[in-house]
TrEMBL record:
Gene Ontology biological process terms from the UniProt entry: amino acid biosynthetic process; carboxylic acid biosynthetic process
Similarity annotation: Belongs to the class-IV pyridoxal-phosphate-dependent aminotransferase family.
Matches recorded under Gene3D superfamilies: 3.30.470.10, D-amino Acid Aminotransferase, subunit A, domain 2
Cofactor field: pyridoxal 5'-phosphate
GO molecular function: transaminase activity
Record SUPFAM superfamilies: D-aminoacid aminotransferase-like PLP-dependent enzymes (SSF56752)
Residues that span the membrane, as ranges: none
This protein's UniProt keywords: Aminotransferase, Pyridoxal phosphate, Transferase
A Pfam family recorded for this sequence: Aminotran_4
UniProt name for this protein: Aminotransferase class IV
GO annotations of cellular component type: cytosol
């Protein structure tokens, strides 16, 4: 899909053309990456898991002590879709809150006006059921608060750029011998018909799609264990998939290590397929949109 800028963005109370939207060079988001963000999907203009995304946004703000009133965000999100004329399209909302402008100090000031950026953009959310991708394995060089959706993403972007250069769909990361997650996706394994995913905590983002999948497993008698998979257990794994707001549920065909490739069959596994189907049903139930 061709990348482009949105036609309108919301910045600190105004809807502007992107070229007219300006922030200070002293914005702490620019100087320090002192900010958090959120990405919320919509199908045919209908928001999916909005409440859960706003809850995580509140969590990120709280964890970094960033003061920002988000009581009007829901209305702004709806307006963003409207202004972008995406009421009949699939897409996502990008929201970023930074700690605003202040003379540069490592500690943050007591008083500041948060900078709020928001826009809707069109993206392809169809056909994930047919994707069967190769990913590369990389070291997890991120900090110890991956549960915060921070805009400081240097470790993620360096690893993902290497993946992109190698022609891979994503990089999945290893910390201390255990798989954690992707640079911008959550990670699942299937072993003996049981689904494994790293537990929430400081080493992964509590993915909204991940959390939905766990619920779908529980509601449909699919065994799910929230436990990190050691790299040494990979031999017993029969299926791998990644999840995320724009990734949805994407099956993984090959894991590329520096010295070997681990293959997961020529067809998408049955547990992955079942979860994709349950996910599509959930989208249909919540938005009325059929994505099958
Ligand atoms: N990324 N893990 C990481 C590190 C992520 O950045 C993301 C999402 C996920 C999946 O979370 P969710 O299901 O809530 O989208 C897991 C977003 C989409 C991004 O950075 O653009």
């Amino acid at each position: 899909m061709k990348l482009s800028y949105p036609s309108k963005v919301y910045l600190n109370g105004e809807w502007l053309k992107p070229e007219a939207a300006k922030i200070s060079v002293f914005d702490r988001g620019f100087l320090f990456g002192d900010g958090i963000y959120e990405v919320i999907p919509f199908y045919c203009g209908k928001l999916f898991l909005l409440k859960e995304h706003l809850e995580r946004l509140r969590y990120s703000l709280k964890e970094v002590e960033l003061k920002c009133d988000i009581s009007d965000f829901e209305a702004l999100i709806l307006k963003a879709i409207d202004l972008a004329e995406l009421n009949k399209d699939d897409g996502a909302i990008y929201i970023q809150v930074s700690r605003g402008m202040a003379p540069r100090t490592h500690y943050f000031p007591e008083s500041y006006d948060a900078t709020v950026l928001m826009y809707a953009y069109k993206t392809n959310l169809r056909g994930f059921q047919d994707q069967f991708k190769d990913v590369v394995v990389s070291n997890d060089l991120r900090w110890h608060r991956c549960d915060i959706k921070s805009v400081s993403l240097m470790a993620n972007i360096l690893a993902n750029t290497e993946a992109k250069k190698g022609g891979f769909a994503e990089n999945i990361m290893i910390r201390d011998g255990f798989f954690t997650e992707g640079s911008h996706s959550s990670l699942f394994f299937v072993k003996n018909d049981t689904v494994y995913t790293h537990p929430n905590g400081k080493f992964i983002l509590p993915g909204i799609t991940r959390n939905l999948l766990i619920k779908l497993c529980k509601d449909n008698d699919i065994e799910i264990v929230e436990k990190g998979l050691p790299v040494s257990a990979l031999d017993e794994v029969t299926e791998v998939f990644i999840t995320g707001t724009t990734t949805q549920i994407t099956a993984i065909k090959n894991l590329h290590f520096p010295d070997k490739i681990v293959h997961f069959g020529d067809e998408i596994g049955k547990v992955t397929k079942r979860l994709q189907q349950l996910f599509s049903e959930e989208v249909k139930n919540q938005t009325g949109v059929d994505i099958d």
